[in-house]
């Protein structure tokens, strides 16, 4: 499958756990296979990686991470990752543009 290595790298970076990353990638592959006909645009890599990203965010939001096999260090835990994901989700390029638009009182 094309982009599998990139998908696994992204999932591993987001969830910081090899087993959870494999699960995220498997779910993303299944989702991509089922909905391949509805893929929008010519950039299938971005589409595939967005499915992986959303799957990782869902896993983090549910708090169903394994506490073993950490890729980073012992200082990173599921709560810290969830805080980082929440911060990433709230700070999108679109939200930055909207906040900087004239007439916004932020």
What does this structure look like?
This protein is mostly helical. It has one domain. It contains 5 helices and no strands.
Roughly how many Å is the radius of gyration?
16 Å
Total beta-strand segments: 0
Low-confidence stretches: 68-76
Helix content range: 55-70%
Brief summary of the model shown:
Helices cover 65% and strands 0% of the residues. By secondary structure, the chain is an all-alpha fold.
Write the layout of secondary structure elements.
Layout: H1 4-15, H2 18-34, H3 44-62, H4 78-90, H5 93-100
Provide the descriptors you would attach to this structure in a database record.
single chain; 106 residues; mainly alpha; flat
């Amino acid at each position: 499958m094309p982009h599998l290595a990139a998908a696994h790298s992204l999932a591993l970076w987001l969830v910081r756990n090899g087993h959870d990353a494999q699960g995220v990638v498997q779910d993303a592959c299944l989702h991509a296979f089922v909905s391949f006909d509805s893929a929008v645009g010519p950039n299938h890599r971005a589409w595939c990686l967005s499915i992986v990203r959303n799957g990782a965010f869902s896993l983090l939001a549910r708090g169903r991470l394994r506490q073993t096999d950490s890729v980073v260090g012992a200082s990173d835990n599921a709560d810290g990752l969830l805080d980082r994901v929440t911060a990433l989700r709230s700070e999108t390029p679109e939200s930055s543009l909207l906040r900087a638009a004239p007439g916004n009182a932020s």
